[in-house]
Design brief:
By secondary structure, the chain is an alpha/beta fold. Helices cover about 45% and strands about 15% of the residues. It has a single domain, classed as 3-Layer(aba) Sandwich (Rossmann fold), CATH 3.40.50.
């Protein structure tokens, strides 16, 4: 029996946002291959620094981990959109500074996770459902952080679930930043497919 555990934030721990409907882990249990089970360690509001605590609570038989984290770290830097700058170059340098800090924190987090359980998949941060122009601003800024996640996954040969392509409809969101029942179902189906196909089989694979 393989035991898959979800780590991270409300992308997985979305029960508070689905009005009594099934959350991600419930839908995942319905879709996983017969010899798999799933548990939820992710916590709504979780950030990169919280993964260490979530790892301490892993079930003893946890064999595979999927991580979706970083969105709340990005939200903590939301004030950058209100800062005054003198040029586009200065604006890009400020985004680059956020990216650099995120790069260091994400890499350290992932090294810690892989040292405990090598069978790990990571998720990008999905595009938001904010109204325009905030959505375009968020998508553009998040591209810098998603580049970090992608690079770290591929550097370690880990499978990558690109949630930007999984949750690609307005109905996939219960609010601008949380997955709905529909979005959670799409996330669960993608992770179930990852399990069914051997969890990347030791190579970097993008799952859509």
């Amino acid at each position: 029996m393989s035991h898959l555990v979800l780590l991270g934030d409300s992308v997985f721990d979305n029960g508070a946002y689905v009005a009594g409907g099934p959350d991600v882990v419930t839908q995942l249990r319905q879709r996983l291959p017969q010899d798999w089970q799933a548990s939820l360690a992710a916590v709504d509001g979780g950030r990169l620094a919280d993964i260490q605590h979530q790892l301490r609570g892993l079930p003893a038989d946890a064999s595979h981990l999927v991580i979706s984290v970083g969105g709340n770290d990005a939200l903590a830097h939301g004030g950058i959109f209100e800062e005054q700058v003198g040029s586009v170059a200065e604006a890009l340098l400020r985004v680059a500074a956020v990216r650099q800090g995120f790069d260091q924190a994400y890499g350290a987090m992932l090294d810690q996770v892989v040292a405990i359980r090598p069978q790990v998949a990571v998720c990008t941060i999905y595009d938001t459902a904010y109204p325009e122009p905030r959505r375009t601003l968020a998508v553009t800024a998040l591209a810098a952080l998603n580049d970090v996640i992608t690079r770290h996954a591929f550097r370690r040969g880990l499978p990558l679930v690109d949630l930007r392509l999984v949750c690609d409809e307005t109905a996939d969101f219960a609010n601008p930043i949380e997955p709905s029942v529909q979005g959670g179902g799409k996330i669960a189906s993608t992770i179930a497919a990852l399990a069914a196909e051997g969890f990347g089989q030791g190579r970097s694979t993008v799952f859509l």
